[in-house]
Write a structure and sequence with these properties.
The protein is α/β, with parallel strands linked by helices and 311 residues long. It folds into 2 domains: 8-132 and 290-301, 3-Layer(aba) Sandwich (Rossmann fold); 134-287, Rossmann fold (3-Layer(aba) Sandwich). The protein is 37% helix and 14% strand. It has helices at residues 13-25, 27-30, 54-65, 87-97, 110-117, 133-147, 165-176, 193-201, 212-215, 235-241, 283-301, and strands at residues 43-48, 69-72, 100-105, 121-127, 154-158, 180-184, 205-209, 221-224, 260-262. A 5-stranded parallel sheet has the order 7-6-5-8-9. Strands 2-1-3-4 form a 4-stranded parallel sheet, with helices on both faces.
């Protein structure tokens, strides 16, 4: 396995499945039912230059559930970044303090830059509108837990496909497991051409549409995303598409019984709370799965073997 996880291309399909299998075995530890201090004495640096709730907290929870500890960058405004310190210098400093680091940064490519600067492993927690591979691992784990497989499913990716790093990473991973992908977005937020071209060149089965409601009866997974106001250079352009998709419980009458709805969160208005109590909602379980997926990943990157049998 590579030293860093920057994009899903850093993992083979076999490595993905191995990580998911280890994650399943670590579920009792993630739930606090068992204590397994595999990472005792290890230190994680949480380097978040953008706001985060789930990603930062799940990395911290994962490390502490495994007996390790965490140092956080904290508010960027109180860090040396405001004095002009470069990302290179910041990460070289962290390289001497910690054993592994999670990085979120507004600039696409920042995670790769940090990985090149550091000897410790870097886990990309989101780089601008680029990639979010640890989110993809928890997304794949959620799907596998539900269907018992990844292969051959039909998945609708909905909303902000242009700027949404979660769907960029997830689409690549799902296509490698022969999933049929439906990209649903307004034209101005469509999946970038270079991603579509790359996926199709590798044989992906893709349909592109603006019609969410027509796709509901045929899909196994609906992956909703919010329209990301902070990514828009022009607020007027954001206003044109804000709230364009709002899924409600009444929209699901024709859905498959086993269909699940996922969302990387936070949601704004794209999923009505009346869906929370339906059999289709999986986004809060998905958020929990960030803990177990990141536990598995950190063990692998730190060269720690998970004991055989029941943990």
């Amino acid at each position: 396995m590579n030293k860093d996880l920057i994009t899903m291309d850093d993992l083979t399909n076999e490595e993905i499945l191995s990580l998911l299998n280890d994650a399943e075995r670590l579920l009792p530890v993630a739930r606090g039912e068992k204590y397994l201090p595999l990472l005792q004495g290890k230190l994680l640096a949480n380097m978040f230059f953008e706001p985060s709730t789930r990603t930062r907290m799940s990395f911290e929870t994962a490390m502490k559930r495994l007996g390790g500890d965490v140092v956080n960058l904290g508010d960027v405004k109180s860090s040396s970044a405001v004095k002009g310190e470069t990302l290179y210098d910041t990460m070289r400093m962290v390289d001497g303090y910690c054993d592994i680091a999670a990085l979120r940064h507004p600039r696409q490519g920042a995670a790769q830059y940090a990985g090149d600067a550091c000897s410790i492993s870097i886990m990309n927690g989101g780089d601008g509108a680029g990639h979010h591979p640890t989110q993809t691992l928890l997304d794949l784990f959620t799907i596998q837990q539900e269907f018992g497989k990844l292969d051959g499913l039909k998945v609708a990716l909905v909303g902000d496909l242009r700027y949404g790093r979660t769907v960029h990473s997830l689409s690549h991973a799902l296509s490698r497991f022969n999933c049929e992908l439906i990209f649903i977005s307004p034209a101005q937020l469509s999946m970038p051409d270079e991603i579509v071209e790359d996926l199709t060149s590798h044989g992906a089965n893709i349909m592109i549409t603006e019609d969410l409601y027509g796709a509901i009866p045929e899909v196994d997974v609906i992956y909703m995303t919010r329209i990301q106001k902070e990514r828009f250079p022009d607020e007027d352009e954001y206003a044109k598409v804000a709230g364009i998709y709002c899924l409600e419980a009444s929209d699901l009458a024709g859905a498959k019984g086993e269909m699940i709805i996922m969302h990387p969160l936070p949601r704004v208005n794209e999923i009505n709370p009346d869906i929370d109590s339906t059999r289709h909602a999986r986004y809060f379980e998905q958020a929990f799965n960030g803990v177990v997926a990141r536990m598995s990943l950190m063990c692998k990157l730190l060269g720690v073997t998970i004991p055989g049998g029941d943990v």
